[in-house]
Design goal:
- The complex is a heterodimer.
- By secondary structure, chain A is mostly helical.
- Chain A has a single domain, classed as Cytochrome c oxidase-like, subunit I domain (Cytochrome C Oxidase, Chain A, Up-down Bundle), CATH 1.20.210.10.
- Chain A is built from 18 helices and two strands.
- Chain A has a two-stranded antiparallel sheet with strand order 1-2.
- In chain A, helix 3 packs antiparallel against helix 4, helix 5 runs antiparallel to helix 6 and helix 7 runs antiparallel to helix 8.
- The N terminus of chain A is likely disordered.
- Chain B has a domain of 26 residues.
- The termini of chain B are far apart.
- Classes of the chains: A mainly alpha, B mainly alpha.
- At the A-B interface, helix 1, helix 6 and helix 7 of A face helix 1 and helix 2 of B.
């Protein structure tokens, strides 16, 4: 290729579509990543508004801001919006932005499929939300959609099932794209065991998605045919078995937890070495630990349903396999700690979120171990202890990791630095009040307060008040986040030619900030690869 | 700019070998997803008729 031709081709590549076409017909991984993150942010605040309603109702015993049916709708929709609308799309958005940059690929392998997987989402989200507007209101049986309760809701039942199908299709298409990109578009020399941990965790997550989202689709399809076409998969009167739904749902549901958290492990494995100014301790062990967790996630589903009535041998199997997950997870926590050991630590906002993740996610892990014990689980099952457990895993776990990731890569995306002082305020308010919000729920659960109730006995009032105050301050603090991001993108101080984080390693930091619209048109050379090598 | 141009400009340096790899991996992963979907339905259905 002659030099002039090359220049012309590059000029064409730098061409950026303008106006609404850029977004509606988007095939650029960065644009699609941005749209995913914005969608996720909107759903996070809608789901958060539902959470505020829940905490307002539970502020005091006897409050009736919502009637019990409305309260259960808020609760169910809060979970669906947060899981399928906020956390999963946030990870896909980060994958879109970062995977091509980190493996030296020009874009995702299937750019138009990428467009489709994003644009399914707003319609699915709108369908889900519109369930509030139909007669009888939104489904109120919890996000687990257990029959026969789930089938007792009116017009919103098929709407939510269809929305879940759409969200599932979007996730599967996204996962196909991630796998195909990583398997085929890595830069020459980027072997699998040289890939950044975020790419590794996403590759494993994508396989989990492929393996379990169709199971959820199958489960809700059977619910639908039971309701409308006279089948009796889960209908005891017709020879079916409602417990079968629990098995099929949790075969999806437990790996789903790891779909939400494995990319978080990847992000933390990127942030901690950067701000410790040391390579990640035990890179290969981290990869194998992630794969082990993914494998184990397929054989532990029974721990969600110990009290449903199953043979002791099955209880033992699920208890022991669940406890086994603590081993690879322990490897990870140990390796993150060992990475920081004798490192030259600094505590910028991404590192603050990562360290908080390390402590608070581990609390969620420990309460998970308590729940894994069959005799204890008989006490904890269906109480606020379970609510405290999974919120520790998902809020200071997954959500903190997403926020840490945004604070880490935002200077790369925008070419500008955010207001560090304000971001630290965001962190400290979040880190303190997330504990005020969720820690008392352990006490409530141990004292016997059931989950998913619109009112409670007066002896639970004190800790519920504390929890609600924590929730209100935590919720208000989150409003800082979009403001910080918006101000950074509009008028943040340009980071210039230097890397914003001196300890950062990886191919994405070999590109200028902001990352050009089309990056890695030519695959990075071995020298660039070696310079950016993380370990 | 037509959608074709846009897609081409998004991934200009992909070799024939990579394109073949992309096609094969896409098929393999898509079939895996379909197999899981129908596999679970069939297993559940067999459970019903045991």
């Amino acid at each position: 290729m002659t030099e002039s031709h090359e220049t012309a081709v590059h000029a064409e590549h730098d061409h950026k579509p303008h106006g609404w076409r850029r977004w509606v017909f988007a095939t650029n991984h960065k644009d699609i990543g941005t749209m995913y993150l914005i969608f996720s942010g909107v759903m996070f605040f809608l789901g958060g508004a539902a959470a505020m309603g829940i905490r307002a109702q539970l502020f005091k015993s006897g409050l009736e801001l919502f009637d019990p049916a409305e309260f259960n709708q808020l609760l169910t929709m809060h979970a669906l919006m947060m899981i399928f609308g906020a956390v999963m799309p946030a990870w896909v958005g980060l994958a879109n932005w970062m995977i091509p940059l980190q493996i030296g690929a020009p874009d995702m392998a299937l750019p138009r499929l990428n467009n489709l997987s994003f644009w399914i989402l707003p319609f699915a989200g709108a369908l889900l939300m519109s369930a509030f507007l139909v007669p009888g209101g939104a489904p109120a049986g919890g996000w687990t959609m257990y029959p026969p309760l789930m089938e007792q809701f009116g017009a919103s039942f098929p709407m939510v099932i269809f929305a879940i199908h759409l969200l599932g299709i979007s996730s599967i298409l996204g996962a196909i794209n991630v796998i195909v990109t990583i398997m085929n578009l890595r830069a020459p020399g980027m072997s699998l065991l040289r890939m950044p941990l975020f790419v590794w965790t996403w590759l494993i997550t994508a396989f989990l998605l492929i393996a379990v989202m169709p199971v959820l689709a199958g489960a809700v399809t059977m619910l639908l045919t039971d309701h409308f076409f006279g089948t009796s998969f889960f209908n005891a009167a017709g020879g079916g078995d409602p417990v079968l739904f629990l098995h099929v749902f949790w075969f999806f549901g437990h790996p789903e937890v790891y779909i939400l958290i494995l990319p978080a492990f990847g992000v933390i494995s990127e942030i901690i070495p950067t701000f410790s100014r040391k390579p990640l301790f035990g890179y290969e062990a981290m990869v194998y630990a992630t794969a082990s967790i993914a494998f184990l996630s397929f054989i532990v589903w029974g721990h969600h349903m110990f009290t449903v009535g199953m043979p002791v041998s099955a209880q033992l199997f699920f208890m022991l396999s669940t406890m086994l997950i603590a081993v690879p997870t322990g490897v990870k926590v140990f390796n993150w700690t060992a990475t920081m050991w004798r490192g030259s630590l600094s505590f910028e906002p991404p590192m603050l979120f990562a360290v908080a993740f390390l402590f608070l996610f581990t609390i969620g892990g420990f309460s998970g171990l308590m729940l894994a014990l069959v005799p204890s689980d008989y006490q904890y099952h269906g109480t606020y202890f379970v609510v405290a457990h999974f919120h520790y895993v998902l809020v200071p776990g997954a959500v903190f990791a997403i926020m840490g990731a945004v604070y880490y890569w935002l200077p790369k995306w925008s070419g500008r630095m955010y207001d560090m002082r304000l971001a630290k305020w965001h962190f400290w308010l979040s880190a303190i009040f997330v504990n005020v919000l969720f820690f008392p729920q352990h006490f409530l659960g141990l004292a016997g307060m059931p989950r998913r109730i619109a009112d409670y006995a007066p002896q639970f009032t004190d800790w519920n008040m504390v929890s609600s105050i924590g929730g209100f301050v935590f919720g208000a603090a989150q409003l800082l986040f979009p403001y910080i991001v918006w101000r950074c993108v509009r008028s943040g101080k340009p980071v210039g030619a230097n890397k914003p984080w001196e300890g950062a390693r990886g191919l994405e930091w070999e590109l200028p900030s902001p990352a050009p619209y089309h990056s890695w048109q030519e695959p990075p050379s071995e020298a660039v690869l070696a310079h950016g090598a993380e370990h | 700019m037509s959608p074709t141009d846009s897609a081409r400009s998004a991934a200009p340096e992909i070799s024939v070998r990579q394109r073949r790899g992309i096609r094969r991996t896409t098929w393999a992963v898509s079939l895996l997803a379909l197999a899981v979907y129908f596999g679970y339905m069939i297993v559940t259905f067999m459970h019903m008729h045991r």
